[in-house]
Structures
1.
Amino acid sequence: MLLENIKDDIKEYIKNTIAKDENLKLENDTLLISSRIIDSISTLKMVDYLEKKFKIEFQPHEVDSDNLDSIDLIAQFVASKIK
């Protein structure tokens, strides 16, 4: 799966499910956790979505801002799990 396709899918999920602000400029490098666009509950819901959508499994230590703080980071992490 192409990295850009993964990014597009994640962005759509965040816009449609998590981000309540319609004026939010969501870029691939927008900090999601650090800037509090998504909270801990939303993060866990997103992890659940990613696991089901991409048929991957997160380890507990992988659910952190190092892997989930931007669409770019999430897509790179997901792509590394798919391979």
Note: DSSP finds four helices and no strands in the chain.
2.
Amino acid sequence: MLKNLFKFLLSNLYLLKIRFFAFFLGVEYVVRKLESCPKYFVPILLMNYGAKLGKKIHFKGYYRMDNVTGDESATNDFSNLSIGDRCVIGKGVFFDLVDKIYLEKEVGIGAHSMLMTHMDLGQMPMSALYPRKTGPIVIREGTFLGAHVLVLHGVELGRCCIVAAGSVVTKSFPDYSLIAGVPARLVRVLEH
């Protein structure tokens, strides 16, 4: 019981410190803290800055959030992130928060995967040929992404899909899809 009380007090002090510095330095300070804070503190930080989180989410380690500020669509918080009950989020997952990212319950995301909600070449000459595109990412209940998977803007993955490690998902797939490759393609429909 004393250990839990100590953890509770330490968490509140840590949150108070982060809020103090975030008040002066902005939410980017919180973004940097998510890359190094203790894993039990990740959901506290995310929820305190607007993310919608379910119950019993297993965060395995540090995370990278991009475009929380500085982008024309930035919300200056984590309100574009929604994670359902009993999800497992591997170490080093990258969340691009220009648009919404919805993870339904029991989604698994392997280490160092990237969820990219936009493509923008900025002021580069090629931007005339490839204008800015944004779109939400929706990953339905029970889907699993292996390590180092890249999911691009506007993709919706159906229920209980499996995405092989290292795949680049550029389009949406229906329920029970086994997906692999660069770009990812349907390997087969899983039995259910």
Note: The chain is about 20% helix and 25% strand.
3.
Amino acid sequence: MLRALFISLSKAAWAQGWITRWGLAWRVASRFIAGDTIAQALAAVRQLNQQGLLATLDPLGENTQTREDAAQATLVILNLLDEIERQDLRANVSIKLSQLGGVIDPQLGYDNLCRVLQRAGERRNFICVDMEDSSLTEVTLDVVGRCRQQGMNNVGTVIQSYLYRSEDDTRRLIEQGVAVRLVKGAYQEPAHLAYPKKRDVDAAFDRLTDMLLRGAQAAADWQVSEDGRFPPLPAIATHDEQRILYALNQTRDLYLHAHQVEFQLLYGIRRDLQASLAKQGYPVRIYVPFGSHWYPYFMRRLAERPANAWFFIRYLLQR
């Protein structure tokens, strides 16, 4: 119930205007978000690198409504790539297709993504195209596939284990040699498209983990960059320790080297788990969001973590 409520609020303009005026909302959100500016985000990444952790930077923003906004979002990403190179950070960038205008016009999203990938290539960097709700799954996969066909191999994408279609999509991406970040999924989807029960989402996550690790086993020619910008083909992105344990066991059973799989965790959450995985020799990449458009991301994090949600609700009831 709480999950559905917060996901619904993440899309509600009236709620965004109301909640973002409260200082408490930002104080809670800042646990998950590395500041408003590129400079603050890069400072956070530098600290993570000093701890032996990699990063992927997410300049927050989605569902741009005008071509001008999409152009501005693209410019921010281009500048971010320049700064990562200038400061010699071990980080890549995660973006959303709707951020680049993909909802306005899929061709606009593709054109802006090509600009980003060209700059990333010049800066020896990698772009992960995040997955959004199911209305954008097919167009996101198509755009990533088009980029690959044009020889832009520095692009990967995300698979959500709660969608029924994800096994077929994962098989397709493995065949294309696309690097995949595996997540459970953070949007509210109808039961005819996604597993409604957690145990089924978890079981699907393990099946997809197995598929991706076996794909990595077969992809002997994939090169992980020494500067930590290009990830392995599979990135297991979860804080669920049972899912992580399954991935660790499968990695060992398949005789994969530690550098052939990456674990990704969210900024500000389970620092103990981040350190533990890194100590075992696995690449650990922290998803670092930043920017003024933090509200939808914040609401989805509340939906995922009941303890944070109850803290926020108690504050609302006390007002």
Note: The chain has 13 helices and eight strands.
